[in-house]
Amino acid sequence: MFGSPHKLQCELLLRDIQGNISSSPGDLLQLAVSTQILTSQPEQLSADNITTAAQIANTLLQSANITEDIAVAAVTTISQLLNASEESTQERDAVQSLTETLEKFSMDQHNNVSLIVQPKLAVQSVQVPSDSVGIQFTALTGISGNFVANRIHLNTNTSELIADNGGSTDIQIVIKFPPVSHSNNTNHSIGFVLYQNDRFFRSRAFRASSGTSRRVISANLGQVSGLHVEMLFKPTAVPNASLYDFACVSWNYTLKDWSTYGCSKVNHSEDGLRCFCNHTTNFAVLMSYRKDFKYAEALNWITILGCSMSIIGLSLTITFQIVTRKSRKTNPTVLLVSVCVCLLIFTLLFMLGVDNPHKQLDRPEIQKDNILPPSDTHTERDRGPCTVVAVLLQYFLLGTFTWNTLYATHVFLVIRNSLATSPSDFTAYTVAIGWA
């Protein structure tokens, strides 16, 4: 069933709506729906449009006259903004203010609106009895990656994470209430906000150079101390890469960036990545990935066979030149032997260097320390042998070119002076230049 149709004035712009919100409080629903329609193609919105739309949604959610329809339209607008390009969401203040408003909005019961789910955003409000030991919020993985209402579950009296043997849990958070809260007879107002990506949380300390995105879960319980917050995140699958490390983080509104303060890693398994925090705010897991280099086995055998044949051929050439050196002059023997020696050493270094003793492990070992990674792509640091082998390869390859040049010079001098011999000090010059 389709909802009732809404009219949109074609000449209406976002900045016009922003100006009309305060002057026409009775038309909030029409303005909210118009904003939703104008942001329905977020990839075409400019940075100024994103900022204006965020400010409009912020005002709507803070309005004392908000209704269920207005709330749904505002949340839908925010969900669409999460699908805008990264360049258009560079403005930090407007979207950060919007995330703070969503936190407050999720804790309030607006006309019994307890759950609003849109493709990129889900907002859950709930009242929990004082005798409850904890609350669990779970979002199950969908086929499209978007949020669906029937795949978001809530358990208002549990304090344990549920083992996910089937791999269907996308994200799960459990808040265990402190014992002192049980003595209070008032209910707990709790709010959850689930973001499909982290476009509203632009970090300076963490760079997503591979274009990955992260789920962000916001849990809000007011000013309650002694909380035990445990989370389970399903790792994002990255083609041709494996998870190297991760960090459990929360958003610091003072730093305007991710922080590991108050959070720690619990463990990691096939079920997901587990985190523990002692407060409620916006949480995420920052993951770094290592590229998996996989080569066909046939290429390995071709390399070994080809290099082995080169080594045998060069060794025979060197032996032959040395054994038969008395049948020719000294100069060509030194030149040819030097060329072959450079190529032989280069080939040996290549074969030995390919089998790096410090090569990456098949399965990375996750670090125990909760350290914020600088990027979502991990680059292995050189531990010494690679640099040494690379320098030697370069040296002997350049030596090969140099000796070939010297041999060509020798041939030119012999042809030009067919009846004469090379200068007496030519051998000494070539040795000094060739191995320098």
Distance between the termini: 83 Å
Q: Give the rounded overall mean pLDDT.
A: 83
Note the main sheet.
Answer: 8 strands, mixed
Strand content: 15-25%
SS class: alpha+beta
List keywords for this structure.
3 domains, Serine Threonine Protein Phosphatase 5, Tetratricopeptide repeat, elongated, Chondroitinase Ac, Chain A, domain 3, 436 residues, 6-stranded antiparallel β-sheet, alpha+beta, 8-stranded mixed β-sheet, 14 strands, 9 helices, 21% strand
Task: Describe the protein in words.
The protein is of the alpha+beta class and 436 residues long. The chain is built from nine helices and 14 strands. The strands form two sheets. Strands 1, 2, 6, 7, 9, 10, 13 and 14 form an eight-stranded mixed sheet that branches. The chain has a six-stranded antiparallel sheet with strand order 4-3-5-8-12-11, with no helix packed on it. Strand 11 and strand 12 form a beta hairpin. 32% of the residues are buried. The mean pLDDT is 83.
